[in-house]
Amino acid sequence: EKAVNLKKDLAEMQEWMTQAEEEYLEKDFEYKSPEELENAVEEMKRAKEDVLQKEVRVKILKDNIKMLAAKVPSGGQELATELNVVLENYQLLCNRIRGKCHTLEEVWSCWIELLQYLDLETAWLNTLEERVQMAESLSDKLDVVSDALESLESVLRHPADNRTQIRELGQTLIDGGILDDIISEKLEAFNARYEELSHLAVSRQIALEQQLQTMRETDHMLQVLQENLTELDRQLTSYLTDRVDAFQMPQEAQ
């Protein structure tokens, strides 16, 4: 009777593993929204816990069959063979579910990481747009234009590492058919805005550089002129002090 019960337990265990495999490993999943992906991750976590909880039952079966085989070798041999099959199937099921759970968690982590990088780069684009707008209407003061140029250049020196991460993470998910429509839309919008603002910023940078160069040249010319006028004023003052006749002065002084 005990052998019959153990045989029944083994059959039930094998049936449960077959159902678990069909439910968790053989279904075709399509993750077209973050909600679907998140739900799949949670479901696979529950599946992993469910399968691992059966480990106690498997151990009890193993111990009982070993005890029976020790008492009744002839009756326990067949059960021992069936037990080995169940143990192999159970271990394989555990490994496959662990693997799929890990993969889904990695995919979810990849999606969250992509969103974080997009948030960082969107904040940077907002700052770049703000600096470009601030540099459009400036006073004619040299220091104001210089500060605006320096401020714009400091934002443009932003490293490309985050954009590289966005491209690689997005492509990884799209290649796996994960949230491909949503990610493609997000990347397209981000890249279009990046290209537009980068072009505007570089154009404005060039314009500011040219404006600054012109202002510096003008400032230098005015400085030279001021120095010449100061020297001429000194000479004229000297002539007046010495009561020099105008016709005795050089032509330019006259």
TrEMBL record:
Stored SUPFAM superfamilies: Spectrin repeat
Source organism, top-level taxon: Eukaryota
Coiled-coil segments: 3-64, 208-242
InterPro entries named among the record's database cross-references: Spectrin/alpha-actinin, Spectrin_repeat
Alphabetized UniProt keyword annotations: Coiled coil
Pfam annotation, one family: Spectrin
Native source organism of the sequence: Chauna torquata
Protein name: UTRO protein
